[in-house]
Amino acid sequence: MQQCTAGLDLASEEHRLVVVDGKGRRLEERRVSHSEDGIDALIRMLADLQVLRVAIEQPNGLVADRLLDSGIAVVAVHPNQLAAARDRYRTGGGKSDGFDGYVLAELARTDMHRLRLLEPDSDETKALRTLTRTREDLVEQKVALANQLRAQLDAFWPGARQIFFDVDSLTDARGLGEKRLASFLARNGYSGRRSAAELLVRLRSAPQGRTGEAELEARRAVVLALVAALKPLVEQIRLLTSQIAGAVRAHDDGHIFLSLFRDPKSVVTAAELLAEIGDNRNRHPTSASLEAIAGQAPVAVQSGKKKVACFRWACNKNLRAAVSVLADSSRKHNPWAQKIYADAIARGHDHPHAIRILGRAWLRIIWRLWQDQNTYDTQRHGSLNRLLAAQG
Q1: 19 bridge partner residues
Q2: Domains parsed from the chain with CATH numbers
Q3: Tens of pLDDT along 265-316?
């Protein structure tokens, strides 16, 4: 039986499968329903046809997990790679329903030197990834709602913005007195230096919006509705943060990433780094691979004699954000990180570029620690200790 490859164009309700033989001829093309019966039939069909590997665009998800669990080799094809390859196979500018599936199958047949086989992470890592990504989604929703709330307050009650740092803690302030405000501050763990009386003066002395009674009542209702929507989000984020902290500390690789941070509150970023990098060491055989997928290494673009380094758009956005948080926090207390950042700024780079330069340096360290399963130790960081010795 000749070796075959397949391409699976994923959709929400129905996927399109194309199987080609060793010479690129279509052997099978059909629709696969996104159901238990449909996925079971897909796996049986691939086994019957002795498909060598299956190419898909989405490396994470139910279908990819089911294929991997059944022992089928899965190839990850980035959307940019698929888009760039379409012109190689398109004739007359057309595009049939199974065209992307065919291109994916052909890439799995001819371009494996450019692609990578998926190797699944452990169940613990996938669980941690689910927790961190869901928390990030909730944080984005919280920020959006909080911005709407601030916009409403700016329109008719700017004083509230002056005394409430977290607008999601607002309550109905009609008839607010000193004792009631003091009680509110105590319940919410206020740690500022101003007394309730001082805060109340600031609240009452702020400019007042000129709104009619009907509009004022409507805006008050909107503010309270937004606060009511924010409170459960804040609570769920808190609960997820607690779950993430427990999960990353219990993970076999958790100690590696937790050691990168001084502040115990950075547990979420440590968990994000672990979840996005994963625990499969074969996925990144060199640090360069990790630097690229994290968006910290530039893309070299060459035209004739001109060669420039461009921003890397195609990357794991979650991992890039986590590396940026590590880099930005470390430059404030780690002399080695401070110097890398300062040198980048001195060369004329802006803040985001300097952070990426520092993030790339950190990823080289992280990759080595990750491969050796060691924790970060300032006493063993050669570049840091040489810098400290030179500074006396």
Answers
A1: 6, 28
A2: 4-120 (3.30.420.10), 124-250 (1.10.287.4070), 277-391 (no CATH)
A3: 889 999 999 999 999 888 888 898 899 889 998 876 666 666 677 777 778 8
* Contact status, residue 369 vs residue 257, Cβ threshold 8 Å: no
The confidence band for 178, taking pLDDT boundaries of 50, 70 and 90, is low
Gap between the Cα atoms of 76 and 278, Å rounded: 16
And the tokens for 274? 């672990």
Please count the residues of the chain.
392
Listed in order, strand segments (DSSP E) in the chain are 4-9, 14-20, 26-33, 51-56, 73-76, 116-117, 299-303, 306-310
Exposure string over 286-324, b if 16+ CB within 10 A, otherwise e? ebeebbbbbbbbbeeeeeeeeeeeeebeebbebbbebbb
3-state SS, residue 15: strand
Q: Give the model's confidence band at 119: pLDDT under 50 very low, under 70 low, under 90 confident, else very high.
A: confident
